[in-house]
Amino acid sequence: MNRTVLPAALFSVIFLTACQAPPTSPRPTDQLPFMGTWDCGATTMTFTPTSYIPSNEAAPITIRSFSTQNRATTMTLADGAVIQVQWQNDNQMTFTSETTGDSFDCARVAG
Prior knowledge:
about 10% helix; 1 helix; eight-stranded antiparallel barrel
């Protein structure tokens, strides 16, 4: 039985490639379709390219990172919370908090 030994440099390239974070949004964050204000029944929330505002009374929370896959975007917030939005069309999306378990169907607020 013959064994082939991979050079150490090749192993580190394979390892680093396997451990990379998922790709981020392919378009600038200000062009993501869920930017703006949404009526989610229990609350009205707003997304900007740099922050998430969970209600009209709440202070903005900085968005630390975005990761978009198909029609869903996952955001990690500065406080460590992880939220996800999945848009159905220009006027409807679903919001889910991985941290609290909350889930809302939301409609875009005109304006």
